[in-house]
Design goal:
EC number: 1.1.1.271
Largest sheet: 6 strands, parallel
Protein name: GDP-L-fucose synthase
Strand content: 15-25%
Number of strands: 12
Order of helices and strands: EHEHEHHEHEEHEEHHEEHEEHH
Helix content: 40-55%
CATH topology of the domain at 5-173 and 211-249 and 285-300: Rossmann fold
Radius of gyration: 20 Å
Structural class: alpha/beta
Pfam families: Epimerase
Family: Belongs to the NAD(P)-dependent epimerase/dehydratase family. Fucose synthase subfamily.
CATH superfamily of the domain at 5-173 and 211-249 and 285-300: NAD(P)-binding Rossmann-like Domain
CATH class of the domain at 5-173 and 211-249 and 285-300: Alpha Beta
GO molecular function: GDP-L-fucose synthase activity; isomerase activity; NADP+ binding
Number of helices: 11
Length: about 325
């Protein structure tokens, strides 16, 4: 019989963490270990260390983080850098002290410079100035990558890092004020349809291009990278450049995104773009050649993913109105 592997998913209630849990649940040789925030404060160093000593963990998916949109990052920069650094420091170091050999750290595409060449390769890390609005969060994530690399170099651990593009899907944040573009638009078009509105106004010109990945694809990629043979992983990474981009490698204009969301929701009114509103960066696309060379590609196309995300929102929308 195969040994039952005890796998700790930190951040299991979040969008990515919950998707990882759903996929790991299909493996009968995996025992999933989770803790709510009330059960384990990940910013408490001693509590995290005691947890690892007690639970005898084999693998860790580090999906726990303090996250938020531009407004939250601008308003609470100290919270973002402190809490994220503390959470990842506690988990990575405690995992090492307790003999955990395998860990996967989930980062963010915001680690790359604001003006990084498109598509963004892993080599763009630390080559330029970060986007100021989320710099504290990005620096914490960069520190997490370098921490994993450092434990690998000094202690021969197998701590890997994946950097996702813009994610969306089930368990996303659909708050009307601080959600990201896809959940915000899904909710806006849904409510416009219910209200019988004749038009919906979208911010910007619609010309910027963005890449999106459905969260179940992100979970699948995370599990795939975690379980790659070490020899295969090392052939396709570098000791000081060990993180791997995760995305579709396909981008869309915001206009295409908005029109697809209107179609999925069933909104039949007019769509107008307010070009007086800011567009942001003209393009943000991840280069995913390294991940593809390791044998993984995304499988859920944008329209299908939007349909799944919208269904989940409709089925759970009462939760967002409390």
């Amino acid at each position: 019989m195969k040994k039952i592997m005890r796998v700790f998913v930190a951040g299991h209630n979040g969008m990515v963490g919950s998707a990882i849990v759903r996929q790991l649940s299909a493996n009968k040789n995996v025992q999933i270990i989770t803790r709510t925030r009330a059960e384990l404060d990940l910013t408490n160093q001693q509590a995290v260390l005691e947890f690892f000593k007690t639970e005898k963990i084999d693998q860790v998916y580090l999906a726990a983080a303090k996250v938020g949109g531009i407004v939250a990052n601008n308003t609470y920069p100290a919270d973002f850098i402190y809490q994220n650094l503390t959470i990842q420091n506690n988990i990575i170091h405690s995992a090492h002290l307790c003999g955990v050999q395998d860990l996967l750290f989930l980062g963010s595409s915001c680690i790359y410079p604001k003006l990084a060449e498109q598509p963004m390769t892993e080599h763009a890390l630390l080559t330029g100035i970060l986007e100021p609005t989320n710099e504290p969060y990005a620096i914490a994530k960069i520190a997490g990558i370098k921490m994993c690399e450092s434990y690998n170099r000094q202690y021969a651990r197998n701590y890997r890092s994946v950097m996702p593009t813009n994610l969306y899907g089930t368990h996303d944040n659909f708050h009307p004020e601080n959600s990201h573009v896809i959940p915000a638009l899904l909710r806006r078009f849904h409510e416009a349809k219910l209200n019988g509105d004749k038009e919906v106004i979208a911010w910007g010109s619609g010309k910027p291009m963005r890449e999106f990945l459905y969260v179940d694809d992100m979970a699948a990629a995370s599990i795939y990278v975690m379980n790659l043979e070490q020899s295969v992983y090392e052939e396709n990474t570098e000791p000081m450049l060990s993180h791997i981009n995760v995305g579709s490698g396909v981008d869309y204009t915001i206009r295409e995104l908005v029109e697809t969301i209107a179609k999925v929701v069933g909104f039949e009114g007019e769509i107008k773009f307010d070009a007086t509103k800011p567009d942001g960066a003209p393009r943000k696309l991840m280069n995913v050649e390294r991940l593809e060379s390791l044998g993984w590609q995304y499988s859920i196309a944008l329209e299908k993913g939007l349909e799944l995300a919208y269904k989940w929102f409709v089925d759970n929308q009462e939760e967002f109105r409390k």
